[in-house]
């Protein structure tokens, strides 16, 4: 088991025995085993060849003033505080649950799949930046800042910033692309947004490329650990267990700064999924609705106070500090872990060494790619990263807000 203490010892030991261990930053991405080593990617799960195509693309249900939800439309900020917001609103039949068909794309994110099943996103699974920003606010009470960050990560890493389109699962480049070079893998794309040690999804390599399907066995394990309370403590413990499993069973395990997003996603179980969000109860029945049925529970209300970037950064920090783990990866064999040594003020001796503000800054860097390739940067086209910075710089650079006061160094900040 890697604990903070044993890891520090490991680093000291390795640093003397293998002086290269602490010098991973300038290594090519394939220094770690977990590169896109997909010999024949064409017919793998998630690939373009196996991706369903629904010719009947409808788009999300348009904004209707009769049912404003949290008031978000056209990708702009909604009310932010969202009182008495029942979703779907009684009578708003356009947002009632519709089971996905065989031609509809679904992917690794239960929050997004559920929203698509309720037509807050296009039901076929080809969505847009604007739909994502509106949906997160209106359905879940996500703050505008976090809604933009997550949508930017999705579209910037896995979609097309010019068309604004994103597949919520498999590679649907033929329908998302504006003509930019390169495939747009969708949310299934590995080590862009999706990564190893997910709560209920397999790691990529042991599963032959399917890291996005819901795995019932993992869900049962999580439920066994949580015992009806999917709160912060349980997420902290279960995420740690998942890390150890990946370390021990996945020769190509890779844990980058983007993996911090997985702690963020884990916080959604207790901050966003319960009726009334953080004021509600993260119980088994609620989780069954989101993970197994991908449907909003009956008589369900969104969170009231917005879930913002500072709040999610604090949750990520708290879970990480509960069981600190090293950044790095296995190098082609199980238990062959090599840590990433130093990174700015954020990572030292492979461990996160910053504050919640530092977490927020690393989230920013995950989206704008302002990070060395050993951290999972490097494979995203510059145009995408510049676009991401143009979306996020106004939010992270507004010094009148709590987030702006974190003073994250901004990328591509010529303005
Ligand atoms: C634009 C917004 C969003 C995008 C692009 C997005 C994308 C993703 C992706 C790619 C994953 C897979 C990560 C992995 O396991 O490797 C994921 C996981 C997850 N997402 Fe989202 N997400 C978004 C918003 C949300 C929201 C608003 C919620 C909750 C209301 C949510 C709940 C979750 C949960 C619980 C997981 C973990 C699933 C698991 O590990 O089994 N997401 N999301
Ligand atoms: C689900 O996860 C378990 C535990 O990692 C694994 O043994 C099993 O093969 C996975 N099931 C599928 C269908 O991939
Ligand atoms: C949970 C799940 O669907 N797992 C899949 C993992 O990937 C393998 C190989 O593609 C599939 O056979 C499994 O069904």
From TrEMBL:
The terms under GO molecular function for this entry are: metal ion binding; peroxidase activity
Cofactor(s) needed by this chain: heme b
Q: Which ranges carry the Heme haloperoxidase family profile domain?
A: 93-318
Annotated family: Belongs to the chloroperoxidase family.
Keyword Heme attributed: yes
Q: Which residues form a coiled coil?
A: none
The UniProt keywords, alphabetically, are: Heme, Iron, Metal-binding, Oxidoreductase, Peroxidase, Signal
Kindly indicate where the leader peptide sits in this chain.
1-17
Which protein are we looking at? Heme haloperoxidase family profile domain-containing protein
**Organism from which the protein derives:** Salinomyces thailandicus
